[in-house]
What we know:
The chain has helices spanning 6-19, 21-31, 38-49. The chain is mainly α. The protein has a domain at 13-49. It starts with 5 loop residues before the first helix and ends in a 20-residue tail after the last helix.
Amino acid sequence: MFVVSEQEAALIQAAWHRGGELAAVAELRRVFPIFQGNERAADAVRMIAGWRCAGRRTGPDHPDPPSSG
């Protein structure tokens, strides 16, 4: 188990929007070196990418992360 701050989540979400899932996995593993492999890191990234931070807007200027299924 690990705790993700809003700042850490924002870094991971920005990586997702910039470069997709693999970029977000790399960012997650940089921030949380406890992740040894990409499979579990990718699971965590998909959850974090879908989070809504307090006050986050949605709409055409703020697209949602792509779904993984």
